[in-house]
UniProtKB/TrEMBL annotation:
GO biological process entries: axonogenesis; dendrite development; microtubule cytoskeleton organization; regulation of microtubule depolymerization
Residue intervals of the Microtubule-associated protein 1B/S N-terminal domain: 17-216
Organism in which the protein naturally occurs: Cercocebus atys (Sooty mangabey)
SUPFAM superfamilies, per database record: Metallo-hydrolase/oxidoreductase
Record domain Microtubule-associated protein 1A/B/S-like MBL-like: where: 221-404
GO molecular function: actin binding; microtubule binding
A GO cellular component annotation in the UniProt record: dendrite
Protein name: Microtubule associated protein 1S
4Fe-4S listed as a keyword: no
InterPro entries, per the entry: MAP1, MAP1A/B/S-like_MBL, MAP1B/S_N, RibonucZ/Hydroxyglut_hydro
Record's keyword terms, sorted: Microtubule
Taxonomic superkingdom: Eukaryota
Amino acid sequence: MAAVTGSGVAAAPSSLLLVVGSEFGSPGLLTYVLEELERGIRSWDVDPGICNLDEQLKVFVSRHSATFSSIVKGQRSLHHRGDSLETLVLLNPSDKSLCDELRNLLLDPASHKLLVLAGPCLEETGELLLRTGGFSPHHFLQVLKDREIRDILATTPPPAQPPILTITCPTFGDWAQLAPAVSGLQGALRLQLRLNPPAQLPNSEGLCEFLEYVAESLEPPSPFELLEPPTSGGFLRLGRPCCYIFPGGLGDAAFFAVNGFTVLVNGGSNPKSSFWKLVRHLDRVDAVLVTHPGADSLPGLNSLLRRKLAERSEVAAGGGSWDDRLRRLISPNLGVVFFNACEAASRLARGEDEAELALSLLAQLGITPLPLSRGPVPAKPTVLFEKMGVGRLDMYVLHPPSAGTERTLASVCALLVWHPAGPGEKVVRVLFPALEVPARARGDAPGPGGAAAS
């Protein structure tokens, strides 16, 4: 409970701690996130006379409250407000939730503040992977430059001493160029900003307890928890041509279906695959198309492959009621997988190579991925589906030009063309362009090759 002044109003703690963390399926990623959290907290040189950090972290572990977001599934907030320190830990936040809490942090009157940005991130740019998108230095500066924040600060009496905000974030990639821009904002924000200072504090019992608790909170869920079974029985059948785009963080997934034939394109960067909400109601995914291997396209697909392997283990182990096991084990069968197997174009710091993982999972499932290339000009289509009196679905591979293409040119540009049998029906074309520029090199998040339909 916060201290109470003579007027009976609770006094705000003089120190504020905001930590961000995200779960991911790799032990290496979890270790990396915990190391970054430890580095961030130990860099905070707050005066022990103002805030006994070791003691306050112990209090947080034993007394904090947990809130689950009703909007962003999987997002949790761990919060405790003590006499000298208010602590908020965001787990698996969305980009909007993180930006909102950053604004609150900037506007809070606490004299000492610490922001620790730690989570799975791309190893070249350092862009953080959040529940619903990425968070880059560009996004961070957008919050710091927010006009509304400046206007609010301009209308409040300036403090005798500007508050000190210590910020720890990735030290590589685009974050390494952040210092000059951050320093230039100190006056407008009425803050002393310290970016990635060296470790000041020794390891402590309270910090160890805090990190152990966060580690337990970030433990990756099982495949059955990550991809939940359908709530109702029966299978969905899609007749008319349709194409759905599913947001997946830094990269999206797409789903095309016609007359019961289904094609899944990429899996998105979120292991909790957004396409699963639809796919789990199908008895079969006839084709899987991976336009490019990377951290923005494969994690969602790898979650599906992991689930199918877990289903096999569940069947072999037995146990539990038949109805319960049947409900858990429902997932669509997989048909052909088109995948130009090569080293992932984008990887997560300390993370597994998603392309190698996909190949390993496919091998365990007995599925051999088929490579794609254009071949001789003019390009000839691969017939994916054909039924007399109904129509034909062709796939034209426009890139890479040949099977001997170098690994760096392995991304696929594919055109799906549906030719209905009825003379009055429209031909449907859906283009999935090759990804020449990785997502990490741009400020936006690509879709599954940017699907375009006509």
